[in-house]
Amino acid sequence: MVVTIDGPAGAGKSSAARELARRLGFRFLDTGSMYRAVTLAALERGVDLTDTAALEGVAEEVEISLDDDRVLLDGRDVTKAIRTLEITTATRYAADCPRVRAQLVDHQRRLADGVDVVTEGRDQSTVVFPDAECKIFLTASEEVRAERRFIDLVQRGEHVTRTDVLEKQRVRDQGDSTRAVGKLYKAEDAIEVSTDGLSREEVVDRLLEIVEERRRTTAN
């Protein structure tokens, strides 16, 4: 079974999807981390992120592995390194590159082949797994999403302001919803869930209810 969770930045997708997968006993795919890893590799190699050919070359050369809660880049744990504001802001170049997306989409499908997965990102229900048995669109208000991101960055030791985080989030939202490939939008058959005012546990409880209901429906 494939459970897709799409939604804007800061909606709480990663943490909710990871816990949902744990409860279900499914594999968890944090697809956004793959684009972040390509971006980190490109920056470390001094690649101009606007050079699409060079960016495609990086994506072809690197090996990205998702190992439970860890993201490995050529065998190196980059789980924390890819979560900085710098990488978050720059990831749009990899996400906007058609050939990079094609490579990573193919990789995501291979990772989900023959196993039960919960996968989260921007285009999981619309592009990567359009035939997924259960599709969820997780969202939250702009202010709530920015505050969550601000707290997360501060806890990671970054020196940022709420205003800066909100402004960068707006730029990212605009890019996510207008990019030529893999843009963010709610699939017609996806169930929308707002996380405003809900604890992480309450969000996961709601998602679990949706998955179990879909299981019963498909079984019949």
UniProtKB/TrEMBL annotation:
Residues 3-212 form the Cytidylate kinase domain. PANTHER family: CYTIDYLATE KINASE, CYTIDYLATE KINASE/PANTOATE-BETA-ALANINE LIGASE. CDD domains: CMPK. This is Cytidylate kinase. Its main location: cytoplasm. GO terms for biological process: nucleobase-containing small molecule interconversion; pyrimidine nucleotide metabolic process. The keyword Nucleotide-binding applies. It catalyses: CMP + ATP = CDP + ADP; dCMP + ATP = dCDP + ADP. Belongs to the cytidylate kinase family. Type 1 subfamily. It is an enzyme of class 2 (transferase). Pfam families: Cytidylate_kin. Its EC number is 2.7.4.25. It is found in: Cytoplasm.
